[in-house]
Amino acid sequence: MKATTNKPLSDYTIDSRVLYVSALACLLGALSTVGAWALIRLIALSTNLFYLHRFSFLEVSPDSRPLHWWAALVPVAGGLLVGLMARFGSPKVRGHGMPEAVEVIVFQGGRVSPRIAVLKPIATAISIGSGGPFGAEGPVIMTGGAIGSVIGQLLPVSDSERAVLMVSGAAAGVAAAFNCPMSAVLLAVELLLFEWRPRSLVPVAMACVTAGSVRHLLLGSLPIFPMPPTTGLMHHAAMLAALLIGFASALGAIGLSRGIHLSEHFFEVTLKKIHWMWWPAIGGIVVGLGGMIFPPALGAGYEVIQQLVSGDITWRLLAGVLIVKSIIWMFSLGSNTAGGILAPLLMIGAALGVTLGHWMPFLTPGAWAVVGMTAMLSAALGAPLTSAMLAVELTHNGGLMLPVLLACICSYGISILISPRSMLTEGLSRKGLHLSRDYGVDPLEVVMVSAVMHTSVFALPADARRSQAADWFASMNARGPGAWSHWQRIFPLVHEDGRLAGILTRAQMVAAAQAGELERPLLEDGSASPTTLFNMQTLRQAAMVMAESKHTAFPVLDAQDKFAGIVTISDLLQARTLAEQRERERSRVLRLRWPFRSKPDISA
User: Fold this and answer.
1) Residues of the domain holding 496
2) pTM for the full predicted model
3) What is the pLDDT of residue 279?
4) Which of 371, 405, 430 is the last residue of a domain?
5) What mean pLDDT do residues 28-57 have?
6) SS3 sequence, 97-154?
């Protein structure tokens, strides 16, 4: 008799393979850090070539020198090069990296073409170096993920393990680029893994820790945006102000997302007769004009973010970021060029926080910049924990955690109430793909087979003959067509001591009844070694057995290996029904009782 393994139930599903995958993830952490370092250097080289006409890896911004009229054409040239790479290299170099990574991880088994690991950073360096208003973080995610995917394709691993390796590489890239290993782990959980399981969390964390360590060797350990620490008690009014900034950031993120959608619609509909290869160059026209109006809007803009965090602020700077940077970023992103979204969101959010914080003197302008930029990121990505932790790791200022966390949660809650999709999943939705980002316990995991199985079943003795099948068949015909709609589709043969001898399906019962030779043992017409389930297994385990065997009903045994009942595929729905009842049915469980009431409230 085939029986599913009756292993003791555990809190986690994990095996020793996690050690092998974790070792590979550590290697990926180091490789992704080198990839992030190389991308940063490529962006610096590209910026020097485009704007300063020199071969140098020294980090500069496009506006480090006064711009001449021809500087308006530089983003056009960069966009043209990206378009050519996308058409003749790989279309996957387009986009800001994170939605593409999610699509590959969830829907494509973590399979990425090896050329993406090479072409994506080059296209990103050209795009940002020529003035594109992007950050390197999204492309770093795709590049690190591509490295992990390639290693996963070279080795004999499962699709799930390959996806974990890809996420490990992607998260390690973020950890290296932003010096934020903890935030990178949270980013993987909230945006890339879509699960919280040790088999994936352990390798990803190992990759991020390795990336953080190697990053210290290559790029140093200083925070990306240092600022004076916030000390002392947090004023209660500052918390109310954080709520306001969180609310405003949610509306701002939704507005930016709608603007990107309109920009994409413009290119896809209005310019549909123009080959998409030319779209990044057309987007570069708007970027070039915006750069002539407000030069700090060009490039990644880390220097601008540092100004906002340090409190070195003017109204011209705030207006330029909120208006010019937002417009050229949305339009350029709609052209589907290469570049990330994290740095622009941080810059725009910081400017919004400083602007609103001007009327809230409870914290310094730099502190309001940190609150605003993380709240904007939380609303746009739907990642409040990642955003809140970023505030600490980017600035090394843990004193702002309370208002930052409050603003991030507020912006997150408001954004998901108003907008059904985040900036990351909107594009996937338009492709006909759906992702649910609700993390919860699987209802099938909390209901046991014993809770839903049928215990009142029609069973036959182990020594039953075909004549008994014939009697059953005659009684079914006598009861009419309605009798055949009964739930029971398998019929157990049971020994006197309760042990299961075998089963017959309904079709086998009918065939035995019509076969003649009525004294032959009925067990010969059925299966003496059926697959069985145990009453203390979960419905999820039962569902897995049903999926593997393609059968929809199984006999159930108890702890003494005796027949206990039958479970069917329709019984699995009871768990979902119970979960829906818990979500929707509202009732009062307790009632307050007056202390001197003469009659007790028996309903309490």
Assistant:
1) 443-584
2) 0.83
3) 92
4) 430
5) 89
6) CHHHHHHHHHHCCCCCCHHHHHHHHHHHHHHHHCCCCCECHHHHHHHHHHHHHHHHHH
